[in-house]
Amino acid sequence: MKSHYYLLQLDLYFGNYKFALLCFITAFVVTLITIPPIISLIKKHNLYDKPNARKVHTVPIPTMGGIAIVAGMMMGLCLWFPFRNVAPQISFFFSVAVLLALGIMDDLNDLSAKYKFVVQAGLAALIALSGIRITSLDGLLGIYDLPITAQFTFTFLIIVGVTNAFNFIDGIDGLAGGLGFMSLTILGLFLTMSGDVNTAMIAFSLAGGILAFMYFNLNPARIFMGDTGSLVLGFVVAVLCIRLMQVNISVGNPVFPHAIVFVAAIVFIPVFDTIRVFATRIWKGKSPFVADRAHIHHLLTNQGFSHSFATKLICVIHGFILLEVYWLRNLKQEFILLILVAFMLLTTVMLKNLGLVMRKRNMPKADGALKAD
Questions:
Q1: Among candidates 177, 187, 261, which has minimal Cα distance to 224?
Q2: Would you tell me how many other CB atoms lie within 10 Å of the CB of residue 267?
Q3: Is omega for the bond preceding 364 within 30 degrees of 0, making it cis?
Q4: What are residue 136's DSSP bridge partners?
Q5: Which pLDDT value is given to residue 50?
Q6: In 302-335, which positions are buried (b, 16+ CB within 10 angstroms) versus exposed (e)?
Q7: Which string of DSSP letters, residue by residue, matches 268-303?
Q8: Residue range 177-223, pLDDT digits in tens
Q9: CA–CA distance, 370 with 373 (Å, rounded to integer)
Q10: Distance separating alpha carbons of residues 359 and 297, to the nearest angstrom
Q11: How many CB atoms lie within 10 A of CB 240?
């Protein structure tokens, strides 16, 4: 009988995670030993991420840490991943390679948003053509199986949207890595529980690379992942989310009644934040692509809170959202989405005014109050 552990009403059979754990450890070790030489190389050639008006760091920091993350992930998969289902695998790994190259060029030369969008759109179409696409909304708003045009449209929107959402939220030390590590670990667990052990290995290998990178990226950061890492991270999370939806619909005894809501929770913070910021810019008559300091992490750092505090708080909120959606999984999925939106709206308001609340709590009492005491 396989050994297992019962946690949060989940049966985790450790035998199913043997190769996933090997991928995780391999990626962790490779990334850990690769980052120091990359930092030295970047310093030698002066390839820093330099501060400007919209960035929160004040001194030049080495960037392109995503090279080490992807190197760790690919080494873990090369050693332990069973390459069998050719078309989706070729499309996926080709896309990762293209995004890595795109990220390197963007970190070096600051490419235009239009150019990056065209490349991302092409890769999203390639993934959809390979068979990894949203085929059903699983009853959300009464919609089940989608026509082929809608399948490609939704898949395109999810991949491009999530890829850029993770790119946009990579603004302070450890945040994109922290959210990415949590999301990838959850995706790996539930893909394995749904029977797709091979795809889960991709999640765990990238999670291992991210965890090693965070040792160098937590405040004060010694290196940033850059677009080199954030584009790949967002893309992989998006593709794995779509795959989890596919698997959950096809298995006889699904882990979730409706995986689409849980998948939405996995990417909810970066996606909601991107939509909120874009909508605010448009409301003010600005271009949605003109960078500013209005993202969720800026709401905290603009008030004087540290990178470390902001990252930890946002990651705690992310963890709460995941637990909340899993515990509420048997409710109607439209109701769960409404709860998520309401929760994030309330959270945004609270974060925006957290500094004011803290200052009021720390203010000395008035003379009259002191005398009354």
A1: 177
A2: 22
A3: no
A4: 145
A5: 67
A6: ebebebeebbbbbbebbeebbeebbebbeeebee
A7: HHHHHHHHHHHHHHHHTT--TTS--S-SHHHHHHTT
A8: 999 999 999 999 999 989 899 999 999 999 999 999 999 998 788 99
A9: 5
A10: 19
A11: 27
Which of 262, 284, 229, 271 lies closest to 102 in space, CA to CA? 229
Q: Give this prediction's pTM.
A: 0.91
| Distances from the Cα of 242 to the Cα of 162, 251, 257, angstroms | 11, 15, 16
Give Cβ neighbours of residue 271 (< 8 Å, ≥ 6 apart). 161, 162, 165, 264
The C-alpha atoms of residue 109 and residue 183 are separated, in whole angstroms, by 30
Q: What is the mean pLDDT of residues 32-54?
A: 83
Helix (H) or strand (E) holding 6: strand 4-7
Burial of 290 (0-12, 13-18, 19+ CB in 10 A): exposed
Residue 136, helix vs strand vs coil: strand
SS3 content of the chain, % helix, strand, coil (to 5): 70, 5, 25
User: How far is the C-alpha of 236 from the C-alpha of 233, rounded, in Å?
Assistant: 5
Residue at token pair 């995986």: 259
The token pair at 116 is: 């990056």
Which residues, other chains included, contact 367 with Cβ-Cβ below 8 Å and sequence gap of 6+?
A: none
- Whether the pLDDT of residue 366 is over 50: the answer is no
Task: Tell me the backbone φ, ψ of residue 145, rounded to 5 degrees.
Answer: -65, 140
Token pair 């199986």 in the structure block, residue: 145
Specify whether the backbone of 191 is left (phi greater than 0), alpha (psi in -120 to 50) or beta: alpha
β-sheet bridge partners, residue 4:
13
Spatial distance between the Cα atoms of 167 and 164, rounded to a whole number of angstroms: 5
Q: Which residue has the tokens 């795959």?
A: 243
Backbone angle region of 241, left / alpha / beta, with phi > 0 → left and psi within -120 to 50 → alpha: alpha
Q: Which residue has the tokens 């060029």?
A: 105
